[in-house]
Specification:
The protein is built from 3 helices and 4 strands. The chain is α+β, with helices and mostly antiparallel strands and 100 residues long. α1 packs across α2.
Length: 100
């Protein structure tokens, strides 16, 4: 039996852009872009493959290397945890409906 996966892409710069856009009424989109560019930081770009059996594969889209969950920090780790919880809840709900 094939193990289905749920794929998500996380682009950290987009995360911070949307967070700043939603959290302030005083910055324009161009100003937020400028701030993020001035930070001169490397923003993560990862693809997450969550499998129904609970396993996960995380790929760094810049290097094509695999990342272990314990290596995640900050916004990427938050994204990982939130998606994991969401998928566990979704899986439980599906099973409840299937066996109800």
């Amino acid at each position: 039996m094939m193990n289905a996966s749920h794929n998500f892409r996380f682009i950290e710069r987009d995360y911070w852009y949307h967070k700043a856009l939603c959290d302030t009424d005083h910055l324009l989109p161009g100003q937020i872009d400028a701030m993020l560019d001035e930070a001169h930081t490397h923003y993560a770009d990862y693809t997450f493959k969550f499998y129904d059996d609970g396993s996960v594969i995380i790929i760094d889209n810049d290097t094509n290397n695999r990342i272990k969950p314990r290596e995640l920090t900050g916004a990427v780790y938050d994204f990982y945890i939130r998606k994991r919880i969401y998928l566990i809840k979704y899986n439980l709900m599906e099973k409840q409906l299937q066996y109800a």
